[in-house]
Specification:
homodimer; 126 residues; alpha+beta; 4-stranded mixed beta sheet; 4 strands; globular; disordered C terminus
Chain lengths: 126, 126
């Protein structure tokens, strides 16, 4: 059998509450992962898509953060209410949810505006 | 800045010791992830390659298991002694370490011979 068609990693990292960057655990990361897993099973995606919790994805200011591979699509500020759309649009229909997507200017850089940087974003609702 | 060039997820899932499938935590998963992270930093890969711990990758009989994205390359039975080769060959030179690679017939299926299944493998050393 082939490996998973898509593999989702949801950050559930817990930091000390005093940490200035915050953490995904404090933003409901574990519940979001559990709810996503349950919704995917209900959608019949078990065996073709897997959703795992992960350690710190280092996108703390964008939490709850998740990444979908092999696409390499990063989502930020994900809430429980967003799960259904991610599953339907991205994991079933193959269309990433643009409104939740983190632009390259945000991922993996301290120059991201959410970290106090100065990079210009083309990011609407965030 | 672009997202990570490669993203490694190492299973560190802990199961009850009596579980018949075993678990990666009992096979040194956490130490392997820590050692890999340290070795990658030493190799100057911080910022371009990230190594995270993950929850159960559901390849328990192949532990310690890891997956490298976006390549979608799965490794099984990884030991501390294998880390240097994975970093040098795959993460730096882009050549997966074939001797550690899990074939598709092993990943994501209960028919895998390591789970008591009957699929024929072209797998040398495992």
């Amino acid at each position: 059998m082939a490996p998973y068609r898509r593999h989702v990693f949801v950050c559930t990292n817990q930091r000390d509450p005093s940490h200035p960057r915050g953490c995904c655990a404090d933003k409901d990361g574990a519940n979001i992962r559990e709810a996503m897993k349950a919704a995917m099973e209900q959608a019949g995606l078990s065996g073709t898509v897997r959703v795992n919790k992960s350690g710190c994805l280092d996108q703390c200011e964008h939490g709850v953060t998740m990444v979908v591979y092999p696409d390499g699509v990063w989502y930020g500020f994900v809430k429980l209410a967003d799960i259904e759309e991610i599953i339907r649009s991205h994991l079933i229909d193959g269309e990433p949810v643009e409104r939740l997507r983190l632009p390259d200017a945000c991922v993996n850089t301290s120059r991201c505006p959410h970290r106090g940087g100065t990079v210009q974003l083309g990011l609407g609702g965030l």
